[in-house]
Each structure stands twice: as structure tokens, then as C-alpha cells.
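Rotation project, supervised by the postdoc (A.L.). Task for the rotation student: set up a whole-complex structure prediction and record inputs and outputs verbatim in this book. Inputs entered:
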Amino acid sequence: MKILFSTSPGGHLSQTLKLAKEFIIEDRKNLLILIINSHTEIEDDVFSEIIRVPMKKRGIGFFTYWLSSLCQIKNYKPDVIVSFGAGNGAITCIVGRFLGVKKIYFIESFSRVNTMSLSGKILQMLNFVIYVQHESVRGWLGKKNLKYVKTFKIK
Amino acid sequence: MKIYVTCGSDSHKFERIFKMVQLLVKPEDDIVMQMGATNFDCIVEKNNTIKFDFLKKDQHLYYMNNSDLVISHAGAGTLMECWQCGIKPIVLPRLKKYDEHINDHQLEIYNFGLERKILYALQDIQCFNIQGRLGNKYVHKFDKVKDLICQA
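Outputs recorded:
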């Protein structure tokens, strides 16, 4: 399975790494590709390819997200796109749908306990299914296209 | 006392946390500070202080696990790492009104931690003579998300 992850640094990246590791525990055959909008060092030997795009959120930098997503999806032809946000991840999801990727998962960051991110709200309006990590977010915007997945528990 | 102060990889400055820490540290404390985009030189001169802009993951986890207290912004990544290591961090959320982040979403996970008593609020701390460990360790796992992706 070819999985394209698209993320920002910080907590988004931490969560992306955790999920990506789930795919390599049992099976090294999965091809994991990461698009990230930062130069953050990624030490874990998890991804087959890491594609770095500029961080700028305005002007030409903003359009590089779209262009880069378009190029990478056309290049790798992923079976699945996964994003924990932020904005660049949402763009990859939208471009992925436009290019016919069937499985697209946008997972709200664990930091979103009560509200949804702007990226989540936009994708929800575009009829994407959004996974949230807190039940308290689930009632938001009338539960449309929101699914809860439990990720946090006492050991 | 060994104190590790971390404010993540965000591109915004976060001087407020260092100013508050400065008021609470004692001259004999050893302090390691991961400062990110923040420039702040005023931490008590007498302290044995090491400053970094950014740390590699293994160094970050080393200081986290080998400190008596961890003081942090309310970034999801750092807080999850603390809770998984059984650490009860002292936390100050970044706020938009001080230009410390693009919005106030850090308040959500901060309040989540406060309600469950798995973090301390930095503004409530009078001195650092507190217990920096939790009774339990917590797990943040994505095995169910993986199952969802594989089953669909």
C-alpha cells in the first residue's frame, strides 16, 4: 500500500510519525511518503521519501502547496492520503480528491479538544470525512461527516 | 533541581514563559532551555543555564526524562510526550493576543490537562517545590486509525 502523509511540523508531525510507525511495525512493504512544509529534522527511519515544500502561507509560497501536492500525487499515485493538518495537509487532501484518490483521511490534531481547525471545517464543508480524537468535538457542526476515534488512554 | 523548559518548534516568539520561569528559579537550579524562535537573555545569571534554539528528538527526550521538572508550552506533541513518560509538566499556553501563536487552540489541550490534573498551570505555581511525576503513564496510539485505513 502506498500512503502519502502530508503535515506541518510540531504536534502534527509527532502524530503523523506515530501513525506511520503503526504501518511499519508488521509490514515493511508499505511505501510511506511524507510531504512536510518545514526543514524540521526527521530522525526516525520511517518514510521512504520525504518531500519538503516552502513554509510560506501567503503569495507564491501558498501556491507551491497546491503545485507540490499535485506533482507528488501524480508522481507517487498513492492508494491513501493521510493528514493531521495543518493547512498544507488540507490542500493535499483536496488535490488528492481532484486526482481521484479514493481513500483520504483527515485527522484533527489531538490539541483540538472542543473545536475544529479551519482546515477541518473547510474539508467538512467539502464533504470529506473528518476523524476527531476527542468526543467533545463530535457534536460540532451537527456531527456531519465527523467520526470519533479513541487514541488516548491510561497505560 | 534540574529544570527543562521547552517551547517547541513554532515560529512565534514566546518570551512570557521565560520571564515567568525567571521569577521562580533559584540560583542553584540547573536549567536547560529549548527556546525555539525566542530570544531571551535575562535568565538569572547565577544559574547553570544551557540554551538551545532547537533540539533533536533524542536530546529533547533525554532532557525531559532526566529533569526534575518540565516546563512547556501547550503544544500537543510535547504534552503527549510528557504524559507518555509519566511526567506532569508545568504549562503555559501560547496565546494569540500576545502574538505567540496564530490562534488560541493551545488553550483546549491545556484545559484538557488541567481538568484531568495531568499538568500544572505555570501561573498558579508559587515555587518549584512540587511533584513533577504522574502516578500513571498515558498512551497515545493510532492502532485504531491504522485499522480504519486498512479495513476501508
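Student's summary: The mean pLDDT of chain B is 91.
Supervisor addendum: The beta strands of chain B are 2-6, 30-34, 48-52, 69-72, 90-91, 120-121, 138-140.
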